[in-house]
Amino acid sequence: xxxxxxxxxxxxxxxxxxxxxxxxxxxxxxxxxxxxxxxxxxxxxxxxxxxxxxxxxxxxxxxxxxxxxxxxxxxxxxxxxxxxxxxxxxxxxxxxxxxxxxxxxxxxxxxxxxxxxxxxxxxxxxxxxxxxxxxxxxxxxxxxxxxxxxxxxxxxxxxxxxxxxxxxxxxxxxxxxxxxxxxxxxxxxxxxxxxxxxxxxxxxxxxxxxxxxxxxxxxxxxxxxxxxxxxxxxxxxxxxxxxxxxxxxxxxxxxxxxxxxxxxxxxxxxxxxxxxxxxxxxxxxxxxxxxxxxxxxxxxxxx
Length: 303
Known about the structure:
The chain has helices at about 5-20, 30-40, 50-65, 75-80, 125-130, 135-145, 150-170, 190-205, 215-220, 225-245, 255-265, 270-285; strands at about 100-105, 120. The protein is mainly α. It has 3 domains: about 1-65, no CATH class; about 70-175, no CATH class; about 190-295, no CATH class. Strands 1-2 form a two-stranded antiparallel sheet. Helix 1 (about 5-20) runs parallel beside helix 2 (about 30-40) and helix 10 (about 225-245) runs antiparallel to helix 11. The radius of gyration is 22 Å and the shape is elongated.
């Protein structure tokens, strides 16, 4: 008796979908895909841009023996594409062949196609990243030299994007403090330290001292950290955000980030408690359980 696996079912469904979308038969795809593709005789219709992206992503996955997370849909791919590459900051080029074409990237290459591991990068950024691990990208960023078509600040942005997925994949517990050099897209895996930097940026957009900053001020007091130093750090962050483009470049100022690191390390335990309670409240309110899903498998292959 032949047992049809989830992987086989995905290959069959994808074969039909690609044939229906008038795509070419990929001879390197699994046999179940090719059989379903060749056997389709129904109506054919050109898909939309993000439907093509989605089909292409699923095809890349099955050729690697993987299955794309059901949360990754054409609408999801559209949501994580905000018009600019988060690494190069160049506007995406949606027409023709260009180094600025958007490409779907798995931030951590040796695990699966989960929604939290997905990012839309330009072709230039994706080619530079290639199969590099987070450790390799972080080392390049620390060297401070242009390499592989990316400038030092672009390598730092890439490392910032990869850190959350790398941390989540290995359940490492947020071992490093990195500048939030790039803003994460919807649903991307992040760490506590990245969440705090993001929240501080949101709170610092106000022209006056917002009520939300009092949460961090209370944490500072409870952790016996210097209240004056925290206020000075927040003021410096706010001023840098006003002159930097994009605003997250403020974290690349050594004085701003060093002050953040000093404050974060002293207040670490209280910060973690506060962030975890905020996330739990949000998830309970929105039923947002996607980011709590376990990685499907520690190996490269799901099936």
